[in-house]
Design brief:
With 475 residues, this protein is mainly β. The chain is built from six helices and 31 strands.
Amino acid sequence: MAAIENRTIDDYINLLIAKYLKAKGLDESLGVFAREMSLSRNLINSFDESNLENLFDIVSDRIQFNEYNVANSLKSLKLNEIVPQFSDKVIPYVPKWDFQDSDFILDCIDSSVDGLTILARFTSNAGELLLSTSQKKVLVAETSDNAIEKIGEFDSNKEQIGIVKICGYLASGKFYYSCGLDGKLSLYDNSRMHLSSSDWKLHSRIITYLDIIPREDSSSSWHVISCGFDNMLKLSILQRNNEGKYELRILSELKIASPVVTVKTTLIAIKDSFLTPMVFLARSDYTRIVAYSVINDKLALSYEIALNNTQFSTHSFNVRDFEVLNTKTVNGVNNVQTENSMLAICTSHTPYMRMILVKLPIEINEKEGIDQNSLTSTKTKVFYDKILFNMATEIEQDGYSQPIVKKMPNSNSIIIGTDNGIYASDIQNGETWFLDVPGNDVSKRIKSMDTNNEMSKLVVAYADKSINLYSITGK
């Protein structure tokens, strides 16, 4: 008899939930729930026409004399008690965790790499992965559903180039590149063989950031944006001449007032829909994001975005890392900024990181260039109203932590590599949590992390020299 009563209760609860989902117009959720609970559509429809109670009325009657305490109990379950009421125009673009399309399948755990993996990076070649190691090698690997298979390495004089901090592959030029400890940029052909006369001393110290961007007006020239430990931000042009040889020339350079923490680049449309690079830079002891545009082959300071609430203090914390969100593809060109583009920023706050969501203005400086001293100019346009959410997180860190934030555009989700494994972030709900997926270990510090262009693979390199490869699928 008890078993029959329990079955009746379960069926009644399931129908109440189904009726609630239908009333809210959550048809997709209703379909999933009905399928998992083996509910028939006819039963749901007939229940909707009956005089039985609905879930809202039952819960309302239950808490009407204790609503204040219930509300406080619900607030205590969230770290961020106050979550902004994002406008209807903004909220579709605010990162939200998509449980339906964020299923992580552990393909393999690889411990065969000799030495510590400093950088793990996918290329635009399907399934290809570059691994830069502490043994002064850049390994080339193919990824599958169950293995990371080494197929070669960069041809280089490792004693000369040293450890490689940056490497990649440029599909539009069909060449590989690397940056060693000596501040040089080196090119390699499609077979990873070093190209003669293709080494250039870009910086006097280690190159910490480098991006090669195809020029829209030429198929054989590229903008090179770089930054190094010499605190120089440089714009160069890389060209392939009629003989097939490469030449590099520095076009513009700026001395940055303090060490650069991180740099990201996008493209932005200007007159006649011409695309030009935008550079977003964060530096230490400066609580602002600095934005530069490339105008007439010169770096132009466009604006700054303040990350604190006062106009009288430019430093209260540092930016650790950030990611540009909500970009688009235009005529086959990726990473083009839109009116809905945002920055997801990880801060240096201890003992727990904060995340700041910032809306990017669609604005550039149309002047030909700027004076090196303009970083401190009172004429610089500073935005104080672009912060959408300053969010507390559950991510522990100290003064030496180097978090890595990555976007997953297919699901509008964000993941963060930390000293304690991978965390997920749902900014719409003001939540972060340890990502409970196979192989993710709270005791393992992440050194490098990347997703491929199709966002179907995730590679994670740990400080214990192991590498995890995941497939990202819908459930």
